[in-house]
């Protein structure tokens, strides 16, 4: 059973960090407005505004910023400003026991998949796969996406069905298991390392962006021959954005069908989770029930 961090309350302080790619400081006020509208006080991390060739500061600066936010008793949650690249460069340097001893909300997605996987594995804590604060302006965060932040204040079960968007059953059936996963490309990058993601009896979330159909096929084939697909209990297929010219999301689903149908494990595609709007935030490391027959995903609360 993973540790669920404590829920937020109005007036709490949360930290904002840039521990992957940098973001221009002149856009920062627009990013933190959402958190302030939720009644939170915002503490800006030392990495925010730092720049390098393609990282928000040095590895040492980003690691120190993360550690300080985890250790800070005043900070009740940590929100990632942007994804991009850089998480893997400090993954092996993080003090994971520190987060176990100071459990708190950790929120982000995309490149942050590396941290989600590592925190679940070595800190034994529930994390949140949700939109980066950079999305507040870049993609004009949808009202539905904003509402998903409220799960951090009041523990409630998320019931995701076709009221949000059409879903497509790849393999029928019902399964219960722990939800894990995230960005497919980043999950594959853990293979062969101490951070290799655990698929055994898990319900795996996959999402990605900017990947051609051929590479999506290649990633699924690698997961197949690594036996990750057969080890899993079920599959939640999120959004695959920015496809190559002429490709449709149905083409992506067809590739998943080719790999997943022979396994006969419940799988549903079309969830608005990933590089999309709305971007439905979900806790990772909690039990979910995936009902592929009725196209319903029930997710237990991520906070206590």
Automatic annotation (TrEMBL):
Gene3D superfamilies: Class I glutamine amidotransferase-like, LD-carboxypeptidase A C-terminal domain-like. Residues 176-288 form the LD-carboxypeptidase C-terminal domain. One of its GO terms (biological process) is proteolysis. Keywords: Carboxypeptidase, Hydrolase, Protease, Serine protease. It holds the Pfam family Peptidase_S66C. Residues 14-130 form the LD-carboxypeptidase N-terminal domain. CDD domains: Peptidase_S66 (cd07025). The active site is at residues 110, 207, 275. It comes from the Bacteria. Belongs to the peptidase S66 family. This is Muramoyltetrapeptide carboxypeptidase. It comes from Ureibacillus xyleni.
